[in-house]
Amino acid sequence: xxxxxxxxxxxxxxxxxxxxxxxxxxxxxxxxxxxxxxxxxxxxxxxxxxxxxxxxxxxxxxxxxxxxxxxxxxxxxxxxxxxxxxxxxxxxxxxxxxxxxxxxxxxxxxxxxxxxxxxxxxxxxxxxxxxxxxxxxxxxxxxxxxxxxxxxxxxxxxxxxxxxxxxxxxxxxxxxxxxxxxxxxxxxxxxxxxxxxxxxxxxxxxxxxxxxxxxxxxxxxxxxxxxxxxxxxxxxxxxxxxxxxxxxxxxxxxxxxxxxxxxxxxxxxxxxxxxxxxxxxxxxxxxxxxxxxxxxxxxxxxxxxxxxxxxxxxxxxxxxxxxxxxxxxxxxxxxxxxxxxxxxxxxxxxxxxxxxxxxxxxxxxxxxxxxxxxxxxxxxxxxxxxxxxxxxxxxxxxxxxxxxxxxxxxxxxxxxxxxxxxxxxxxxxxxxxxxxxxxxxxxxxxxxxxxxxxxxxxxxxxxxxxxxxxxxxxxxxxxxxxxxxxxxxxxxxxxxxxxxxxxxxxxxxxxxxxxxxxxxxxxxxxxxxxxxxxxxxxxxxxxxxxxxxxx
Length: 551
Hints:
- The structure is a single chain.
- The strands form four sheets. Strands 1, 2, 5, 6, 7, 8, 19 and 20 form an eight-stranded mixed beta sheet that branches.
- The chain is of the alpha+beta class.
- Helices cover 32% and strands 21% of the residues.
- The protein has helices spanning 13-24, 57-61, 68-79, 87-101, 104-110, 145-162, 229-234, 258-265, 323-333, 344-350, 360-363, 367-370, 380-388, 398-409, 417-431, 439-447, 451-456, 532-550, and strands spanning 4-9, 29-33, 50-52, 139-141, 166-170, 172-180, 183-192, 207-220, 248-249, 270-271, 276-284, 294-298, 304-307, 338-343, 352-353, 392-395, 472-484, 487-488, 495-497, 504-510.
């Protein structure tokens, strides 16, 4: 006898979507979560709320011409699939593109999800038409950011609780799958002591009991490994250089990968574990919620990007163009940090911060605050980092700026004023005429041809040493963990495949980051951004609907 129809492990976005779909089909679900109830919604709650959409009304209103064919060209050029294990990821990528160009927006709108009217342009690439990057802006920000995308699915799940179809069990940590005759028939784990930890804070791992649940099927939606730095380093690929010793965390500590290990131990196939997505523009949070808490600067294209020695990064490693290409280059420099050199004029126009809590206007749906994005002046969240952030230097002259940069690092390595002066002055000379051989300036001018960038994202080109654009601002950028691109291999129904090559593992499904957002890694080697939340939505919906139909 089963205790329930389905056990869902993890109450993040993918888990909520899968649970909601199962409950809508009349299935009984027990949703297990190791963290306290305050963490309901998982990492998605903390996100900026960006979603990848293709040929949307928001794009068309801004005169952005997009198509499924162009998006497919960008996705597969970015993913660079090249392994036998990419069989299912390729199929998931195609299915997700169809979803993003089809019913995704309408489905979300039906549930009350709205969008900020200006579409962002992330991962701009800078290579050829068949290479990495978004050819057009596709980053649609949810009105309400991360909490706004979590809310409708949390509401559906809680409504199912009221109907008696869903049971929520927090502080239940799954440690193993129950396998009977080659079929997953339930889960075992520990009941952790009660915790009043707030969202994102570390909670106790003291066990006060054990539990076992029998079910017709189990759906694993437990996330990735970004909070477990030892595991990140263990899986770090040589193509990205040496595994970094100093990492900031873009996710809470409970994103530890332990459920992935338990699922693999049961006989599931975990693939592409060396594919991961970490950011190069991390700054230490002046008010951390979790250990080594980092925030990402979402940069416009104008800051001068220097390595740890003061040398300019090579083309096309400009701010916002190629995250993993930049990460691989940093790995070759012998140091783990880089620098933005900027002006107040650039910072007030181009510096946005990742995270729902760093965007009170969008998160709080506050129109009055939102108007500040089109006015001059530094936003309050960015100003707080200028005032209190350990990675920021403000100065009126270049010698003062470089001295401040060396103070932050303790001179490891020492940056020579002559090196930075040479890079800054050479760049400034290129601004003084309408022609240039500097491809970053060409990119800036091209970006301002897009209305969304011109309005709120890209500053007019100007000399960094122009006193009227000052003061000068430098930011030390750190490596910031975020997403696992590989995961449990799944077919197009979300069924997990066996490691022994025996096909689908009966009774076992996966969705979200635990499945590499579908198939064991539908992004391949790189992401186009706005595709992590979307991957959780899509894979959670697919797994929930397919399992409901199968039971």
